[in-house]
Write a structure and sequence with these properties.
Blueprint: E1 21-25, H1 32-42, E2 47-51, H2 65-81, E3 86-91, H3 106-127, E4 132-138, E5 141-144
Parallel strand pairs: 1-2, 1-3, 3-4
Antiparallel strand pairs: 4-5
Length: about 140
Amino acid sequence: MIKMEKVFDFVSSSGHYAADACVVWCYDDRFYKLLKGFGKKQGFVHIDLVKVAGGAKALAGGPSPERDFVLNQIATSLRLHGTKRVILMLHRDCGAYGGSKQFSDADKEEAHYVDQLKIAKDFVQKEVSVPVDAYLGDFDGLYVL
Ligand SMILES: [Zn+2]
């Protein structure tokens, strides 16, 4: 029998849970506290977090292995945890889009993310039976599509 060495004591809940949301969020750590704060305000107890570079970016492109992967993560969340809604996120100055410097001004950057969020939301909404909401994270808060 393999006996691994315990390096950290911590008690995790072993019970099954229902997820309040499946959240597709960029792993940019500048926006992690935004998710925590928003989740608290929404009253989320459990979320299934799909934390990938670019957040919902993969869902806004055409067919790709990345899009299949993220969509499969969402579908698995719904199947395993009775997930009630899907939250898609993009954020300002996202490295996956080349950062804010790729845009001539802040309004053009926002407009690009709005277009991307619409595409991603429409795509996911066709694939799932729960509500899909799309958000833009900014350095002063969270904006809904
Ligand atoms: Zn990002």
